[in-house]
Amino acid sequence: MGHGAADLLTAAVAALVLIAIAGALYSHRFGLSHLLVFMVVGMLAGVDGPLGLPFDNYTLAVHVGNLALALILFDGGLRTRWAMVRDGMLPAGLLATVGVAATACMVAALARVVLDVPWAQGLLLGAAVSSTDAAAVFAQFSASKLKLEQRLAATIEVESGMNDPMAMVLTLGLIAWMAPRGGQGGEAASGLAVLMPLLGQQLGLGALIGVAGGCLTAAWVKRLPIEDDHDGLAALLMAALGLLLFAATNRLGGSGFLAVYIAGLLVRHRAERVAVLSLPGLNGYTWLAQAALFLLLGLLVTPHEVWQLVVPGLAIAAGLMLLARPAAVVLCLAPLGFSWRAQCFVAWSGLRGAVPIVLAAYPVLAGIPGAWRLFDVAFLVVLLSLLIQGPTLAPLARALRLNQDDV
């Protein structure tokens, strides 16, 4: 690439970011997620937009997505107070495991009818869209300025940080199940034989390394001469530690997403002063990560192909928001004594964001037949979630009398 082309590319990317930021500032007034604007700008710059930039690099999108999500989850852990973790661990843990699995199964049944796909592909779509998105939830809660009862707020926020690993493991396990084994005449591996060991390895190693890494990181940073943010160096230190832990955990076969979230929680608990000092600078890194990720995902989508699936996409999005997610919430939270108002709000606060789109890109990379349809439907689910659930979250909390400032 020559200097002229590189300059043009740099100018184009910078202009897209500026347009997205300006649009996000205005969209905030209407309760829309800032992240939605970045995605729309990416779509407008893409192959069907005015700029017509061709982009189909799913590998790049997945790699950027993984790094961005790791940074977002580590930041989310650092921002979560230990008292909130104690209050929300049991309900959030149930939602992040049983709730994710139940949601995936119900979406699979719906996809089997609406998209006429095999059960395996339906489960793959269900797994991809089953988890709530930490970035979307944190951003929407910050923008809405809701003051919820602590157990309720803790359940929603901790769940959004914990359920991504479960959805990731289910997605990867299903892909391994669907992929033919070499030398076996194209026979697929047994579903349980693939899923259960992978689930145990990913979650077990992720939790173990997250605890060990979080304790070691906290012990080390407490001994460093960090008196203030040192012009952003404290944030850079935390970001580097989070990404190192993420990469090391993945290399060892565990869930890097679970590891960095747990590590962030423990660093906040055991080295709170240093963690709090790093948060303002780290916020800039997470916003940059989110901006890059949503711009890339917007570029990756081909709107005219998505439009062909708008009817089944609407049906699956509606089924997820109105049936699957509420049923999973009732299954997990009713036995724990949550009121019907709280259950309604938890069900509606299950915002989808970048995670389902990134997870839906994995089957495309794996060459699963018809995977592009799953990717387009996952994109529609995310788009509708951000458009419908995001702006109505605060009004619903007030209507259900859950906002403590209104009581």
TrEMBL record:
It is a multi-pass membrane protein. The chain crosses the membrane at residues 6-26, 33-52, 58-78, 90-113, 119-141, 199-221, 233-264, 284-302, 314-339, 345-365, 377-397. Pfam families: Na_H_Exchanger. InterPro entries: Cation/H_exchanger_TM, Na+/solute_symporter_sf. Residues 17-398 form the Cation/H+ exchanger transmembrane domain. It is found in: Cell membrane. Its main location: membrane. Keywords: Antiport, Cell membrane, Ion transport, Membrane, Transmembrane, Transmembrane helix, Transport. PANTHER family: K(+)_H(+) ANTIPORTER NHAP2 (PTHR32507:SF7), NA(+)/H(+) ANTIPORTER 1 (PTHR32507). This is Cell volume regulation protein A.
